[in-house]
Amino acid sequence: MISQPNIHIPYNPKNQLNSETLNSSGLITMFVKFIIYGIAIVGVAQFLMWQVIKEEQGMKFSEESSVEALQSVLLLFSGIALTYGIVVYKNWRPLLILITEFLFISLVREQDAYLDLHYFDGAWQTIVILSLPFPIYFAIIRRKKLMDNLKVYTSLFAFGIMTSGVLTTYIFSRLYGRKIFWMAAMENGYMRDVKNISEESLETYGYLLIFIASIELIFLIKRLDERSKNVIKVASNLNAATFKIVQDKF
After folding, report:
1. Which end of the chain has fewer surrounding CB within 10 Å, N or C?
2. Beta-carbon neighbour count of residue 168 at 10 Å?
């Protein structure tokens, strides 16, 4: 029987320095992200203010407003980022396809007024139904990989942001924008514009969070993929070195 040789790796003080450098790099990255995301939020808030000033009373943040267009753009770019991930990172395709489908449904839903007006009533529902079979089928046949993806994804920072965006957009903004709530708040001075501005602003902020979460997810997948390749490379080199040592003994 051939025993495995003991490979001793001497202590190197540089390893400690490398660890500290990585920690410092991580902190710097977090700080840079905070600044970038903060600028994005300020930019969206400023855009909303400009639109309030620009749009006519009684038509503020309507279905034809630039705010609705911004929401669609955020969804579109979120979908593009995830589509890139689908093409490049095949091990994450089951999860990315499902999230992309969810964003596609949201994007089509945002165009409901346009589709109903220019095509037929219920056009957006038809498009959504036609788009469902492939993602569902793919999720079923790759369900084991999907579960593996979900186990990792739910522990990531990107999942927290995505959850916040979804809850803000699809639950809180809808409840916050209820007419009965604003009628009770303003009583005889009820103004529909105020309700629309509040609801659509929250919805836009939620879409921004979803966009940030999509970008975060792709960067995290890229980092995990590179780390996995490095582990495989190190393991392969170690196996090759062990084989060479054993061969030399004989």
Report:
1. N
2. 20
